[in-house]
Design brief:
Family: Belongs to the aldo/keto reductase family.
Strand order of the largest sheet: 3-4-5-6-7-8-9-10
Protein name: Aldo/keto reductase
Bound molecules: adenosine-2'-5'-diphosphate
Number of helices: 10
GO molecular function: oxidoreductase activity, acting on the CH-OH group of donors, NAD or NADP as acceptor
Order of helices and strands: EEEHEHEHEHEHEHEHHEHH
Structural class: alpha/beta
Low-confidence stretches: none
Number of strands: 10
Keywords: NADP, Oxidoreductase
CATH superfamily: NADP-dependent oxidoreductase domain
Length: 279
Amino acid sequence: TVSRITLNNGVTVPQVGLGVFLVPDESTQVTVEKALELGYRHVDTAAAYDNEAGVGAALRASGLPRDEVFVTTKLRNGEQGYDSALRAFEASRAALGLDVVDLYLIHWPVPSKDLYVETWRAFERLLAEGAVRAIGVSNFLPEHLDRLVRECEVVPAINQFEHHPTYRQEATREAGLRLGVAAEAYSPLGRGQDLEAPAVTAVAVDLGVTPAQVILRWHVQRGTVVIPKSVNPERQATNIDLFSFELSADQMAAIDRLDSPDGRIGSDPATTAFTQFRH
Ligand code: A2P
């Protein structure tokens, strides 16, 4: 079974979830239903992915008790601001068909608009009202995390950022961990690109597992929450089958050495604008 990470407010999250970025709404229900059958109990979506309705339909079709599945969604960049964040949350909650969202994230800091502190106060209100079980951020750099912690009451439970062997952003991960913010990796496989790194395939051969399992197990052993995206049931199944083998210290170090400052695939959090972004 999938291990759980305890967030700074005591809420626990399954360490492996299914990401549905770029899954069209029409196929999202089928993709998520299959994942729930395979044992996934954590799904990560966003208003900007335009597939919250598909996620909600899958949850209902699965027949699983509501408290068995951890659901994350995110505030669209253009909805930042106190009142607009509260309105956008209602739209997400309606699209998902849920009373309570497990984790709500500010999708990008959008520093040029300087609205994320005000937005965070709306998130604190949603938390106080019990509409969400935890609040967090995504794509926040250390300076954005520091500012929220300095100016607001609630420390984010999670920062979800691009994090994979060839692009680790260790400064962001460590700044969060020092403040009690759990690290969550999006594109944990480097959107598939890290799977071919020779260090990864060598460890895969040694352990008799797939390259994806090597990378995801590397994340798990570092305490990171991961949300690999796959629409393929066989790959979905191997992506949560991470708890019957482990990487040695040497194998971990071999993957560690893949880090590069040039490995970013997604948008740059420092400059991502209000309406356009990747992931
Ligand atoms: P697919 O959806 O066809 O399985 P990331 O989560 O880092 O963004 O990576 C997602 C990409 O990696 C998708 O293109 C996905 O394709 C592919 N992928 C996901 N899991 C695996 C796996 N176990 N083996 C190979 N490719 C995978």
